[in-house]
Specification:
It is built from 12 helices and 12 strands. It has 423 residues and is α+β, with helices and mostly antiparallel strands. Strand 10 and strand 11 form a beta hairpin. InterPro entries: Dimeric_a/b-barrel, Dyp_perox_C, Dyp_perox_N, Dyp_peroxidase, EfeB/EfeN, TAT_signal.
Length: 423
């Protein structure tokens, strides 16, 4: 028995048998194609010991996200506590042949690791852990199509984003031929996947940039709650829900469109922005001023017009002074779908903190990732509106940007991007 066999069996013992995973059940998201399995080694529970005497995984460690499906994982998957965003450029001389081999390798590795299995040549970093909700998502940048001779199949939705007045973009940390999003509820599991995929790139691709993020850990609050960002604000209240009747239409590319971009059926477009928060300036504001900038109460995320976090904004409500209680330049007002012709996007960010900048301020903020069926109808109109008068703009800085086409999920036996690369 090889060392790799030993590592894989050890992880499998923690995950339990296939029968135990089946007994735990499969939950399919309303958007379709995103499954979550709880694989307790004692037949579906996550307490005590398994049939072979090994300790069962906790709930956090046992949760598995499905690799195959209508959509790729990491889009409607519940936000994880750790994340890595990485862009690669194909190496000089590499083209479509090398891209096919790379996507095959990456898909094999991602499928194994999302199921809690050790990949070939495993380092043992996450030997004692289960899958921990690991998800790996792959996307293609605009330049990928030039490098692989597939320019005729490049979607118009990948046209460059317009410039915005508040941008201070670093080209070295923007765009890229290939993009990978990794999320997990355990930091070692997330890093394990990062290292494996970086090694898989071999001579075919080189890292262009990498960003590391985090969210609140599972179980850190008494009940499930919308996460807060580093400004202390509840962030994501207005996100589309998978139960919305128009969710798929807004977030995923429909099937049956035909033509050169039919390979994007079931896929989505990711806009990725590194947004620096000017926390020293923000924290000088009293809470009531912060709330007016956002248009929501800081304590519970409720709109200033009243109610609870999930109460619809009353954009016409007036205060005793005759002015709207949600200011005209409040972030929540300007970004509201009804203020932008119904434009909507699914925001799924991570926070980041990369230490202290040379000027002594925190290099911290939001790794903003949003998903939509068409960025020209999702991100762009909302950002244009924000660019013209959002009160929050004085406290943030967009420092990098990327736009990536994320194809639909692979069917059994397929690798991600196969419908594009082998067409």
């Amino acid at each position: 028995m090889t060392e790799n066999d030993t590592l894989e069996i050890s992880r499998r013992r923690l995950l339990g048998t296939v029968g135990a995973a089946g007994a735990a059940g499969l939950v399919i998201g309303a958007a379709g194609g995103v499954g979550v399995t709880t694989a307790g080694s004692d037949g579906g529970t996550t307490d005590g010991a398994g049939a072979d005497g090994t300790p069962a995984l906790t709930t956090v460690g046992s949760t598995e996200v499905m690799f195959h499906g209508k959509h790729q994982a990491g889009i409607t998957t519940p936000s994880q506590s750790r994340g890595h965003l990485i862009a690669f450029d194909l190496a000089p001389g590499a083209g479509r042949k090398e891209a096919v081999a790379l996507m095959r390798r990456w898909s094999v590795t991602a499928e194994a690791m999302m199921a809690g299995r050790a990949p070939d040549g495993d380092t043992g970093i996450a030997l004692d852990a289960g899958p921990s909700s690991l998800s790996v998502t792959f996307g293609f940048g605009r330049t990928f199509f030039d490098r692989t001779g597939l320019t005729p199949r490049r979607p118009t939705a990948l046209d460059p984003l317009p410039a915005f007045s508040a941008d201070a973009l670093d080209a070295r940390r923007s765009e890229g031929d290939l993009w990978v999003q990794i999320g997990a509820d355990d930091a070692l599991v997330a890093f394990h996947a990062l290292r494996a995929l970086q090694k898989d790139a071999g001579d075919a691709a080189r890292v262009r940039w990498q960003m590391n993020g985090f969210n609140r850990s599972a179980g850190a609050t008494a009940k499930p709650m919308t996460a807060r960002n580093l400004m202390g604000q509840i962030d994501g209240t207005g996100n589309p829900k998978v139960t919305d009747p128009d969710f798929d239409r807004r977030i995923f590319v429909p099937a049956g469109t035909g033509g050169a971009t039919d390979w994007m059926a079931g896929g989505s477009y990711a806009v990725v922005r590194r947004i620096r928060m000017l926390l020293d300036d923000w924290e000088k504001l009293p809470v009531d001023r912060q709330e007016k900038v956002i248009g929501r109460r800081k304590s519970d995320g409720a709109p200033l017009s009243g109610g609870s976090e999930t109460t619809e904004l009353d954009l016409n409500k007036l205060g005793p002074d005759g002015k709207t209680v949600i200011p005209d330049n409040a972030h929540s007002r300007i970004s509201a779908p009804e203020q932008n012709g119904g434009a909507a996007m699914l925001r799924r960010p991570f926070s980041f903190h990369d230490g202290i900048a040379p000027d002594g301020t925190p290099d911290a903020g939001l790794l903003f990732v949003c998903w939509q069926a068409d960025p020209l109808r999702g991100f762009v109109p909302v950002q244009r509106k924000l660019d013209r008068g959002d009160a929050l703009s004085s406290f943030i800085r967009h420092e990098s940007s990327g736009l990536f086409a994320v194809p639909g999920g692979p069917a059994e036996g397929e690798y991600v991007g196969q419908r594009l690369l082998e067409s």
